[in-house]
Amino acid sequence: xxxxxxxxxxxxxxxxxxxxxxxxxxxxxxxxxxxxxxxxxxxxxxxxxxxxxxxxxxxxxxxxxxxxxxxxxxxxxxxxxxxxxxxxxxxxxxxxxxxxxxxxxxxxxxxxxxxxxxxxxxxxxxxxxxxxxxxxxxxxxxxxxxxxxxxxxxxxxxxxxxxxxxxxxxxxxxxxxxxxxxxxxxxxxxxxxxxxxxxxxxxxxxxxxxxxxxxxxxxxxxxxxxxxxxxxxxxxxxxxxxxx
Amino acid sequence: xxxxxxxxxxxxxxxxxxxxxxxxxxxxxxxxxxxxxxxxxxxxxxxxxxxxxxxxxxxxxxxxxxxxxxxxxxxxxxxxxxxxxxxxxxxxxxxxxxxxxxxxxxxxxxxxxxxxxxxxxxxxxxxxxxxxxxxxxxxxxxxxxxxxxxxxxxxxxxxxxxxxxxxxxxxxxxxxxxxxxxxxxxxxxxxxxxxxxxxxxxxxxxxxxxxxxxxxxxxxxxxxxxxxxxxxxxxxxxxxxxxxxxxxxxxxxxxxxxxxxxxxxxxxxxxxxxxxxxxxxxxxxxxxxxxxxxxxxxxxxxxxxxxxxxx
Lengths: 244, 311
Description:
The complex is a heterodimer. Helix content of chain A is about 75%, strand content about 0%. By secondary structure, chain A is mainly α. Chain A is globular and about 60 Å long. In chain A, about 40% of the residues are buried. By secondary structure, chain B is an alpha/beta fold. The longest helix of chain B is centred in the middle third of the chain and has 14 residues, at about 105-120. In chain B, the strands form three sheets. In chain B, strands 6-7-8-3-9-10 form a six-stranded mixed sheet, sandwiched between helices. In chain B, strands 2-1-4-5 form a four-stranded antiparallel sheet, covered by helices on one side. The radius of gyration of chain B is 24 Å and the shape is elongated. The two termini of chain B are about 30 Å apart. Chain B has eleven helices and 14 strands. Chain B has helices spanning about 40-50, 70-75, 90-100, 105-120, 135-145, 165-180, 190-195, 215-220, 240-245, 275-285, 300-305; strands spanning about 1-10, 15-25, 30-35, 55-60, 65, 75-80, 155, 185, 200-205, 210-215, 230, 250-255, 260-265, 290-295. In chain B, β7 (about 155), α6 and β8 (about 185) form a beta-alpha-beta unit. The interface between A and B is medium-sized, with 25 and 33 residues.
């Protein structure tokens, strides 16, 4: 556990000792505001809710999170620091968890700094703050899912650009797994149960049900399983690549 | 103790390390020598636990590097090739991170950090980001990282690479100072470094051990061992002198370096011809501007052993 904390602290320090953290947070805030007010009909919708704000989170994450996760392991490989990291008396899972938690906490911070919009909507009307809280939770969990996928992919390569592109593509598939573009090529020749299970992997379905204020255990379990599966794959990848 | 038994490492069809077996005891400073691509770095990476061997087994202080990896790694301080570190961190926060990862706590942590700052003269660069440091300082931060927990085993891959002569001297002094109860393995291209710090040298090439001896004994294998090198005040006499020396029974052959007009007389095996040559010179009235006994040249031994593929 000590190892996880050591890695977590180092990573967080790393974010804030380069412009990365500031650029990421500013871009995230600007874009989320821009989407909300320009496309989300925040004012004209006439509703005291943040649905217009949260609706765009999956799409923001689709590009911003891979930009964050691409460096997690690929950079260590490129600069050779992975040799240092893997020869410290730490278990690989500790490093993987520490790095993941740091990036997740960091996106949590970015999410936290959107609080002015919550203040705004409370000032303008009487929104259901329970729903808003649930949506924040859902958004945070979804960010964790994206990050776990990205961290795993980053471990497979030493090229950050490749890590970025692959992560965007795979996250896109996960995002839309429940929808026509992904499912229609499968209809007709793949058994319905498989199609159903692919559909049930969709980020969007799980996120939208949480963001409507329904915190269903199944959605929580879904994100927990997703994150742990990809982190486990991350550990395996590092172990396998060690030998080569 | 480090115990390597039949270590091999293959990358596809390339055999990087081929059946290495050796032990290192506390107090030994072992120098790994070999041409580029000989397998030095691979061997060190295996012992440090970064690469698993394809076959064979390595234990460090009794801990198997594969099955008891974390315990073994606690015993080791490792400076990887090129001394990688996180460029965006300051020297101080980097070393604190290493202290945390090595689970150093409380006063011991403070004491150890202070000691390595002192030993490696890092105090005035502590708050500088590592990517703004000179190569010499970056290397020293890497060394500080390796010795921070006062490890029983130190593995240093080219510790003085890129340092200026003063810094090299400092680092060698530091290694000598630490060597008493530790096992130290260093790899290097610099043969003078072997003389300066090692009490044992292993020459490897193509992943195999070609020689394993003290630097002194290795030097004794050189044809320069006990040879006499001569420079005359009057270079025009060189040919006459050469002929006279050649006819001495102690001498097997002579060589002249055209560039420096230096004459080197190689002894017949086991003989020390210095006295014979001085006496001969005295009777013939030669004036030597330089006359000395060679102890042997490690670089020549290195070239002979590794078949000319020298560094």
